Amino acid sequence: MVRFACEDVGVADPQALVLAVAAQQAVHFVGMPEGNLALAEAVVYLATAPKSNSLYQAYSSVQQDIQHSRNEPVPLWLRNPATPLMRQMGYGKGYKYAHDYPGHFVPQQNLPSSLQGKRYYIPGDQGYEAEINARLEAWRKKATSD
Known about the structure:
By secondary structure, this protein is mainly α. It has helices at residues 2-9, 15-30, 36-48, 54-68, 84-88, 128-145. Helix content is 51%, strand content 0%.
């Protein structure tokens, strides 16, 4: 059920994973056969939850890129200037802290140059993912208008 919650329900209902793990813990706590109801509740919840494999697809795409592309360095502005030398080398220079901006969003390239514009996670239109999609679209619109 944990795999079902992650792979088939996914981010369309993030509470599915919480409930699946809670069911496992309930069975562990009270034992069987009393734990059957916790399992049955989880089964019904998962079966009737909105479904999305968008996160699974994104993860698979990331894994493909890891296997078949260069291991490029993290952009300098994302690197922590933990020492004076690192600061002199430009680590952290130009970094924009999202929490200092309206809506806690700032358009900033966080991927290596070769991956600029690459999107791994493309939310679906079911459940919570519809809300995520709306938020991402608003951010993209803001990024192109600035």
